[in-house]
Amino acid sequence: MPAHPSGSPAAGPHLTYYEDFSPGHGALPPRAWVPASDAARLSLNGLWWFRLSPTATAEDTAFTRPDFDASRWDILAVPGHWVLGGHGAPAYTNVRYPFPVDPPRVPTENPTGDHRHTFALPEDWPAGGETVLRFDGVESCARIWLNGREVGVFKGSRLPAEYPVGHLLRRRGNVLAVRVHQWSSASYLEDQDMWWLPGVFRDVTLLHRPAGCVADFFVHAGWDHSTGEGTLRVDAPSGGRVTVPELGVDVAVGETVTVPAEPWSAEVPRLYEAVLTGAGERVPFRVGFRTVAVEDGVLKVNGRRILFRGVNRHEFHPEHGRALDLGTMREDLLLMKRHNVNAVRTSHYPPHPAFLDLCDELGLWVVDECDLETHGFAEDGWAGNPVDDDRWTPALLDRAARMVERDKNHPSVLVWSLGNECGTGRALTAMARWIRERDPDRPLHYEGDRTCADTDLYSRMYAPHAEVERIGRREEEPLDDPALDARRRAMPFLLCEYAHAMGNGPGGLAEYQRLFETHERLQGGFVWEWIDHGIARRTPDGRRWFAYGGDFGEELHDGNFVCDGLLFPDRTPSPGLVEYKKVVEPVRIEGDPVAGTVRVTNRHDVADLSHLRFTWSYEVDGVAAARGDLDVPPLAAGGTTELKLPLPAAADGAGEAFWQVRAVLARDTPWAPAGHEVAWGQWPAADRPGSLRTAPDPERPHRPRHAEGGVVLLGPGTFDAATGELRLLDGFALAGPRLDVWRAPTDNDLGAPWQSDPRHGLLWREAGLHRMRHRVDGVVAGDDALTVTTRVAPAAGSLGLRTVYRWTADGDRLHLAVAVTPEGRWTLPLPRLGVRLGLCGTLTRAEWFGGGPGEAYPDTRAASRVGLHTASVDALQTPYVRPQENGARADVRRVRLRREDGTGVAIEGGPPFWFTARRWTSEELDAAAHTCDLVPGDTLWVNLDHALHGIGSQSCGPGVLPRHRLEAAPASFGFTFTTLGESR
Ligand code: IPT
């Protein structure tokens, strides 16, 4: 085994311990994480005494003395971040360091938290042996004293450190003192895109190490797919025996044994209970047999190609920052499993060690990433990058070793990642070399070096679809060096980040997935990112909202770029996660309406279909008219079958009909109960098509007539004779409907500053689409219609939309046909094309037949199912942390908006339309910075859109694909309005 590389580099004479290049001193060599053994342990988590100083008062260490009186200090929960515990404030920057770049020096203004904790040993704490004090994570530099004696210093915030303290301990009255500096030389290595959150944010534990304890151990458990056998060898310097009772294994440490065994995979996470018995300690552990290898240019586990349906996960909790409890970690994994996510990249640092135990248990492929990012050096062309400066190399090697040693025994950890966004340099090569020697059995990942010189996988972030497709064909742009090029071209490819989930979106997921499923080399990717890092706050009147960069008065910040996850900060799934679940579903269900068949394809990497139960239903106007079970054979992974569907009795009635086939869990699993839906397919019945028509002219048209008060009456409608606007619908006051093309720009509309493609959210505003004026050119009450001719255009330009509204009526029904003709040179797509109307705010309930239940846009609509849906108007809103366009429902045939008493307005589309309703205007939505800024008014604003522009992911990735652009082009569409009397 290679020696632990950290050593103790000499600190420069003028550098203090928190500014020197070293990773610290005094710590024991890193070792494997052990969740539990029969050795005693004592958690020191709890309420500690705390004092915050504005500077690193390095000389004043009186507080470390046992007799120091800290009773006037504050109290702080450990684990925790003091900035979330009432002391100072969090700060968010993406790339830029929030202090002058002058490595390894840090500012004099260096918030420093002194912590004190007094504890007694339990009565039964064993005598003899050693006792170790363990910290699982402290940001960013900790200096530690026990009973007045200094035990050491460490950096490496998301990595453990252990100190031998047996000689300092007493039975009771032990005083642990920890000084934590927010800024240290290590801050230069920890420039991840996240909040700066200092503190003792992971567990602090005292561990008894009996004589003859298991100092460290390394489980090597491979699986041979040609024989079905597992091979196990456990290395441990302290010796001992290894037993796996279920497999009848009982071997010495260091001995290799091969036995028939079931493999471990993310889909079938088969673990075997094992015990390592040393002379003085029994360590239970779990074995998952699996072999990961790059073969023939493909990443394989147990001989099979796998496809990452992944997410990038930062540790985040809206109240506790990166101090996550076990329940939250488990919740993250349950949510992932329930949404068909099968992989996690631990961006951009090793997670709490217990998280990986849960990944082993529940089944996730893990890319474990080192706590390393020096992105801020990119601002100056990477000048001075620590990664390419030998003085920092020991600290970087120390980080690699602490990750690998801690996490090496997890079957879930498939890949080591050297870090994120830290340029290139010799230290990366040194880290790679050290890791390969220590653990040759896992491939290496690092995205930041295009040559892939130190890695085994070709990885990119945010590459557009077209480029990914070229890579899929192994036809990417060559590297200058032919040898490196050949090497890289033979590598598997993954998108370590893609589909930037900031605000509304990401769009374009389905198109990526199609590429992954077409080209063997493309092994999927990891959506950026799992959760919005919004910090929970309350308005004075108690309403909760989530803060982002700038909300704490930071002089430098990156706004809401920190809120770019598939979960809202409170872990409610956003529409993006629902979409991802559908797009990556491991079973593809496609119908052939003409043949009356369904094709089922098993897209699992490993599992057959025996864990699923299939059902079919035949739905007429959104109601299941017939349903039953579907007998799907337990297809092996990769298999396809075509099955005949029954002929339902209801097939020859009236109404629009759809087939739906669903795959649900047949039995309870550790992550979801039986009946949980995994995949589905829906398609229109061949003989029962929908009404894809434009609103017809009525058969017996009413004639519009002028009446007193400057109005025109037509059927149930009362119009303003001057403007032609509908004012009343059978007693319901209305504003509009008028043409509307504006939407409150989404984060993806606005794009990122570094994007070279047009950023439509900005261009729309420049063109004035948010301040369109409506000129009325004519209001003509003809024989059978009221025709209103207008031109809709912004000031200062020649662009316009000639818009003709043609109103007709029969009986209780009022029809509107809209014809739009663009005028001028439109080079911009339109945000939306439809009408907006204002209705009475007492209409609070929506029922619609169309796509749902959730939000959908042209390139985020895979999860939208046609059915009968209901929701309150409030529930139609998607609470993006920074308010923006949201809440559209796709393919809506008809919608009813009702008051509490059941009265209301019904709108039918010809053809189906996009429906949006909110209690504020798009302009108010646009102006709001936080959800609490949105205050409902008296009007219900309804958008009925013929078309919408796609979403894309330009907030950090490619924009809207051409096929989802809404070009300005002639269009016609229509709606029918009626009123609803009291129901029931
Ligand atoms: C990329 C980072 O790796 C990630 O940490 C995060 O910042 C993400 O972008 C955007 O949210 S780097 C980006 C400049 C491509």
UniProtKB/TrEMBL annotation:
Which is a Pfam family this sequence falls into?
A: LacZ_4
Q: What class of enzyme is it?
A: hydrolase
One GO CC annotation, please?
A: beta-galactosidase complex
Q: Where is the Beta galactosidase small chain/ domain?
A: 712-978
Recorded hits in InterPro entries, A to Z, give:
B-gal_small/dom_5, Bact_Beta-galactosidase, Beta-gal/glucu_dom_sf, Gal_mutarotase_sf_dom, Galactose-bd-like_sf, GH, GH-type_carb-bd, Glyco_hydro_2
Biological process annotations from GO? lactose catabolic process
- Reaction catalysed by this chain? Hydrolysis of terminal non-reducing beta-D-galactose residues in beta-D-galactosides
UniProt keywords (A-Z) are: Glycosidase, Hydrolase
Q: Which SUPFAM superfamilies match?
A: (Trans)glycosidases, beta-Galactosidase/glucuronidase domain, Galactose mutarotase-like, Galactose-binding domain-like
**GO MF annotations, alphabetized:** beta-galactosidase activity; carbohydrate binding
- Enzyme Commission number, as recorded: 3.2.1.23
Q: Where are the transmembrane segments?
A: none
Q: Where is this region: Disordered?
A: 684-711
Family classification: Belongs to the glycosyl hydrolase 2 family.
What name goes with this protein? Answer: Beta-galactosidase
Native species of this protein? Actinacidiphila glaucinigra
